[in-house]
Amino acid sequence: MTIQWFPGHMAKANRELKENLGKIDVVIELVDARLPQASRNPMLNETAAGKPRVIAMMKTDLADPEVTKAWHAFFEERGETVVNVNAKHGKGLKDLLNTAVEVGKQTQARLIEKGVSPRAPRAMVIGVPNVGKSTLINQLINKKTANIGDTPGVTRQQQWLKVNQNLDLLDTPGILWPKFEYEDVGNKLALVKAIKEERFIAQDVALFLINILKERYPELLKDRYKLDEIPEDGVELFEAIGLKRGCLIRKGDVDFEKAAGVVLTDFRNEKLGKISLETPNDWKERLTEESEA
Ligand code: GDP
Where does GTP bind (predicted)? Predict the structure, then answer.
């Protein structure tokens, strides 16, 4: 998949992010529980270097609970602070809040040492598009709708939102550009709508998902598409799903475009069940290589 961003846009977004980072004590880094590592952006390690960080694993209600547990342990082993959140149903918010305050106090302690008078730690929410930034901010400040926009180029006055006595939150979330140096990362981000539809080919992304489901969740596939058995070959399986769903160009010939739409919509509308698109094992080798490079 060759998806490119405009370097000018990226440079500007990066500059704004750096400016905002300068104002805060703790970063709340949102990742999608279904693709915890693929929804991170390695760039943040440089941009937010030295800034205390809490990982909020979002949308845990949609992910495979066993895999989420494994990811939680994986991040902790690597010395990261991680909290599971289900913002849609308001779960894990208190835990996130308390953790952010604790972590934010580290920066505070340094300021107090320098003689700066103490104030509530300041936090900022950062993540790729559609990870749940606005939903989380609204939940934290108990607001039903956001006047928070993701639209690039829209500048307005930033505000500090008072979450409670112990934490202030920047009202503007930091938007990370999805980064996909690996092909599977692009496909996963496309599946969870972190990338706009016009930037990828639906059939490729659907086939990618079908192959994951075939390996890891064959029973969910059988249930949803009333399949007696799962063909070995991903394309054959794609075809079988299309046939079952009546996605035909003419008698017997599957309309793959339409079948892709069915599979993607089912995944996004939670019709397939709780699915994780990656496990820590999928990343161990890559991350070891990266840290040695
Ligand atoms: P943003 O682009 O990062 O600001 O993402 P939004 O806050 O707009 O959320 C994107 C979509 O994800 C919306 O449809 C939310 O309702 C949904 N969403 C956010 N958090 C959760 C969650 O924890 N669980 C579920 N199931 N959906 C969520």
Answer: 130-135, 174
Between the two ends of the chain, the Cα-to-Cα distance in Å is 24
Q: Of residues 133 and 150, which shows the higher confidence score?
A: 133
Superfamily classification of domain 8-170:
P-loop containing nucleotide triphosphate hydrolases (3.40.50.300)
pLDDT digits (tens, 9 = 90+) for 161-205: 999 888 999 998 988 877 777 889 999 999 999 998 888 999 999
Please state, in angstroms and rounded to a whole number, the distance separating the CA atoms of residues 277 and 188.
Answer: 7
201-292: CATH topology is Conserved Hypothetical Protein Ylqf; Chain: A; domain 2 (1.10.1580)
pTM of the predicted protein model: 0.91
Q: What is the ipTM of this complex?
A: 0.99
Of 41, 88, 133, 274, the one to substitute when testing ligand 1's pocket (max ligand atoms within 8 A of C-beta) is 88
